[in-house]
Amino acid sequence: MRLASTFLNCRVGGIPFQYLGLLVGANPRCMSTWEPMLESLRKRLQFDVNWFANEVTRKMGK
Question: What total of structural domains would you count in the chain?
Fold first, then answer.
């Protein structure tokens, strides 16, 4: 394993590890597993809501 990781210029890790913001190998039934993704979605949704409200206000003002 060490030879392959050296050849591929990567490292051997353990479980759980993070991939695309989610913990791989963690218990999917635990809320703590999903909390980082949910927080990211909350931030994105809040940005979209604010943008939409600003656009509506801007267009109605004209």
Answer: 1
The pTM score is 0.54
The Cα 13–Cα 19 span in angstroms is 12
Q: What angle do CA 45, 48, 49 make, to 5 degrees?
A: 85
From the list 23, 49, 52, 54, the residue with the least C-alpha distance to 38 is 23
State how far the alpha carbon of 41 is from the alpha carbons of 6, 19, 35, 46, 57, in Å: 36, 16, 10, 8, 24
* Residue pLDDT, tens place only, 24-35: 888 989 998 889
Range of the domain at 28: 2-61
For tokens 């206000």, the residue is 57
